[in-house]
Amino acid sequence: MPLPQKTDILVIGSGNAGLSAALSAAQTNPTLRITVIDKSPVSWAGGNSYFTAGAFRTTHNGLLDLLPLVNNTDATQASRIDMPVYTEQDFTADLQRMTGNRTDPALSAALVRDSRAAVGWLAANGVRFQLSFNRQAYEVNGRIKFWGGLALKTQDGGKGLVEDELRAVKNAGVDVFFDTAATALVTDQTTGAVIGVEVVNTDSAGVHKKTTIAAGAVILAAGGFEANPQLRAQWLGPGWDSARVRGTPYNTGDMLQIAQRDVSAKTAGNWSGCHSVAWDADAPADSGNREVSNEFTKSGYPLGIMVNRDGERFVDEGFDMRNYTYAMIGRRVLQQPGQVAFQVWDARTVAWLREEEYRGEVVRRIEGESLEELAEKCTEVGLVDPGRFMESVREYNASVEDGDGQKRWDPAVKDGLATKGLAVAKSNWALPIDKPPFLAVKVTAGITFTFGGLAVNPTTAAVISETTSDEVHGLYCVGEMLGGVFYDNYPGGSGLTSGTVFGRRAGRAAAERAGKSGRLERL
Description:
8-stranded mixed β-sheet; 15 helices
């Protein structure tokens, strides 16, 4: 199918937010022609959404509210599940706490209020949801205990999410084109409204063709600047140019810059902030691996300790539940000498680590029958001071409040099992590391997405002009490009939910605008 010369709605980006917007527009007005373009080849379809665990944070009234959405829980299993209700007040409080009360009130209110409807809508359109037993629940005393306000994921994670959403938009009649990069926004010289996009399409022979697509509305969903080392250094600060890229190599901030250049789009949000995780130090540098995907994440640090290459602990590994800390822990690792750290456990907690993240096929496991042996093996992969490593572990072990902590150790709650007297405390889940065999893995910082973006109308996701403070007519922005929701940190699973919530809003608004604009002429 040839690239169209005109379309009613043009969506730029094939991730969750863009596909949600396209599907929403198609359902709002099925008579419209809706086109999705992405500069990536089809082999990289889905943007960063593909590399996620597929977690969606939503309000809910407990297990019975979510069971109709999922396909992996039978009645016997359900009878063993403990799942606290997660209210709008809970979600709002988490957003405020994670962002230091800087989240935009109108945007966060929309995200929270629409979250349950958004996941229900996705499920109704063929997205396969499951309860996230492997990531968000622990079995304790025979009960399956969900924690951290997060219970849902998509089947097969981000891979399954993108597969399901692509099928849904194609079934709705949406055309999707890859190898097509937007290079400029075209505006009406009289009204300033966006009426098209200049693009460069690359065909199967590698030939580049410039063309212009006329559009009644344009929705930007092209991701942040996390794969652009120059912009990372400029906005995030020193050292970020060498961070590992967790996802797609195609999120380089092009459309953020183009929107500012061509329509004076107003910026918003935390441009010096990002989502960054503890990431396998042996992972590729400039992009994720689509086969391994999210499995390079190393999120078992709350169950053990972390030391830098000098053997020093540097962070409270247990200051909150993992899904409230993992998105900022990468920054703490990046600040360490050599931008690396070692996660360490003993036999007590190794069995609690996620197999998909810590099995030998996806990570180099450093193992020892004694701490001395473990330290020596760590020196082979970058530990500089094994003596200080040993001292740090001994100091930590001596500071644990209850050496027999198994009696009340509970990874599904903040159990209060803490250290005493250390300069760097561990506030929860503190058990001695003294029972062989021992395990360590080497991690670095993996950047997921950037928090800075464009200012939008919270109701429609229409882009705001820096010059006029009014909407840029015909232009909408969703996903990572939307600024103002997240600052410094975020509650796990909020990003995909935000993409769908504002994608739906943008799709509806764009369809209403395009439906009123009449027939489009070729530019």
